[in-house]
């Protein structure tokens, strides 16, 4: 009989029977690995038969504690090729990824294939976008996979529109020029998310030519990438230049950006826990194509009115812009607003226009998003937190960030970063808040200190 004391809650367990679908896949010392991480994860049950006897817990509390232990270790039914979080696969072993759990969308593909490419791990992703209304690969996902394949001369099988399973075998990452074209309004910023970590560890400088939507729904706008993500991500010790050659909007796409960056030896850890005070609020509204300039002015005015209801002591500088015809494909309108703090933290709110939605409503939506991100007291906004996870995992040393409620995208990024690397993440409620009603968390990561073998 095996027993273990949970370090998280102090409950001792006696294990009478542990029956797994494939017990040989797990270390004999399994009980010694059980810990309460107290992460805000979804509770996912393991399909096993388990008989247990709690020493210090009874009834519902016992079942709750046990489910926390199990959900921390097993987020999918055991398989022969599955890995414990943080475990390193044996040479040549293909890592199994369940693309339908947690966020269950394209983010799982982006994080897992980028880390596969960086670490040289053969990968199989199943149940791709299983929970979406249209499961399987869409054009933007396919173009991202093909770019990752090309930049490391890897092998990609099963990748076609609608496919729910792919296998990927990476080789060595190379610099140079790499192109990806969604041929739709699929986001160029999401293409950048999957490719940027890889080319940071290439042998030579890289140029990424990415085509699709620059201001797309359900993805960061290019303005967010340049105004918020870029200055914060560069705190890891790398820089990149981005030239917006053409803006593209839903449904036609047609946008293009060119990103240039040089490789690094190693990424530095970051500490984004001191929020400071808001010192500037600025932004831009835009219209393109046949849409009248008045829409841009109305979006800006509505956003300013909304912000001034809560922040009265700062000038809000939102500039309306008519995009030049030679630099915008199709019709579109939108807004981004950025708040900058005394410590260099950046927060944003953004929105895109749609048919039948008034300019005022678009402006107010962006303003309310910004104000919501400022209210929680964190040092990064809800859309930046998950984008930083992969860099925290790769960096050398301990990175920390303070943020509001942990999004499902962030939970997903953490799970797959831990599964594919030795990085260790902890998420805990911030304890230094004057206002206990604020839901603020500290995300901490001991990175793997990945080193570029070419430099």
Overall description:
The protein has 455 residues and is an alpha/beta fold. The protein has four domains: 2-73, no CATH class; 95-271, RNA 3'-terminal phosphate cyclase domain (UDP-n-acetylglucosamine1-carboxyvinyl-transferase, Chain), CATH 3.65.10.20; 278-375, 2-Layer Sandwich (Dihydrodipicolinate Reductase, domain 2); 382-446, no CATH class. It has nine helices and 20 strands. The strands form five sheets. Strands 8-9-11-10-15 form a five-stranded mixed sheet. β10 and β11 (255-261) form a beta hairpin. α6 (293-308) packs parallel to α7. The radius of gyration is 23 Å and the shape is globular. Residues 1-88 have low confidence and may be disordered. Belongs to the RNA 3'-terminal cyclase family. Type 1 subfamily. Keywords: Ligase, Nucleotide-binding. One of its GO terms (biological process) is RNA processing. It catalyses: a 3'-end 3'-phospho-ribonucleotide-RNA + ATP = a 3'-end 2',3'-cyclophospho-ribonucleotide-RNA + AMP + diphosphate. InterPro entries: RNA3'-term_phos_cycl_insert, RNA3'_phos_cyclase_dom, RNA3'_phos_cyclase_dom_sf, RNA3'_term_phos_cyc, RNA3'_term_phos_cyc_type_1, RNA3'_term_phos_cycl-like_CS, RNA3'P_cycl/enolpyr_Trfase_a/b, RPTC_insert.
Under CATH, the homologous superfamily of the largest domain reads RNA 3'-terminal phosphate cyclase domain
End-to-end distance, in Å? 51 Å
The number of E-state strands comes to 20
Q: Strand-residue fraction?
A: 25-35%
Question: Low-confidence spans: pLDDT under 50, at least 5 residues?
Answer: 1-88
